[in-house]
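Please produce the structure of this protein holding thymidine-5'-phosphate.
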Amino acid sequence: MNKFFLNLGVQPLANNFQKKYSANQPRYNLKLYFNTKSKMVSISKRIPSSVMFNSKYPYRSSMSSTMRTSFKQLSNEIKIKFNPKLLLEIGSNDGALLTHFDKDIAIGVEPCKNLAKITKAKKYYTYDDYWDFKLSSKIKKKFKEVDLIYSANTLTHISNLKDVFKSINLILSEEGVLIIEDPSLLECINNNAYDQFYNEHIYVFSAIALKNLLKRFDLEIFDIKNLPTHGGSLRYFIKRKKNKKFNIKVSVKKQIYKEIENGLDKFSSYKHFAININKSKSLFLEILNKIKKNNKKIIGYGATAKSVTVLNYCNIDNNLIKNFTDTTPEKINTFLPGKNIKILKYKKNILNGYDYAFLGAWNFRREIINKEKKYVKKGLKFITHVPFPRILK
Ligand code: TMP
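Below is the modeled complex.
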């Protein structure tokens, strides 16, 4: 049974960056639910994939050095541990991982045509299509089977999880490995990071919920790694139940134990989370209003999908945060979805004239503060809302 626990208000599509601001852009209710049986946390309103993931999708995996390093390390780990003959990446984006492998052993699946074009141009076999049973059957016909499937921050964006795993089951070899990587629900709850929820993130997985789900497909998790990416993610290593090549590592039990200890299997914990999020909103607004009263200027740093959730939930407008800045070409000179706040191109002197910078990309906090050391010395202060709203010292 799905039980409601948090209302994040009416939200625009988190990656709908428009050249002209319009108050009438489509908006949808964003409500969070916990399923008492499967233990899965999901959002209420499901927007069709074709509306969200199209040829204008602005998110690029290669945009930050943190992510580039993470993909490079992972590709080395995959080569050493699994040495795949054929690898498939679901949601290959701009090829940040794929391109670390030889062209003849790596296949990409990327429905956003603007991104698929990038790996196609580098001669990587790329399907610019949505991941489903039809596509999996097509790949099976051509390649028979794959022995490694990798997917980061993609499967949780697909509403029909049954179809997702049925399609994986169809082409994964008997001894094949599935690696999936997504934000960790435990980190999200402990950080009060309600901004992990937006229309694209239909689910935020816990190891508990994923384990329950995989059971239905005779798949099981044999290792889990905690990662700092996206504000705290989990990398799950998954195999077929009957595959005895890999032992189940203690990391799996450890993660599940931690999640139970933190109450992720109980509805009451989510009600508690909702109370914290209400408090987070009041405190954040208090801080921003105080800064405004002192006639100081704030810029948003990193026009992330996450910051769209925060600004729309907290009803923050350009009277509180003047502008945003971002390095992504597709976001420059557009407006933050739902808000009359212009996104300026990132350049060296962009922070001149601002007293505070709100960390929209708080998941890159270290990388950003390090990059802007010169401004911090001159008195610029960073603001974050995780795990609670505050001005960083
Ligand atoms: P993400 O949090 O969804 O990964 O998106 C990060 C966004 O932040 C992306 O739009 C790029 C932007 N960004 C900057 O503009 N400057 C930076 O230094 C970093 C690390 C990210």
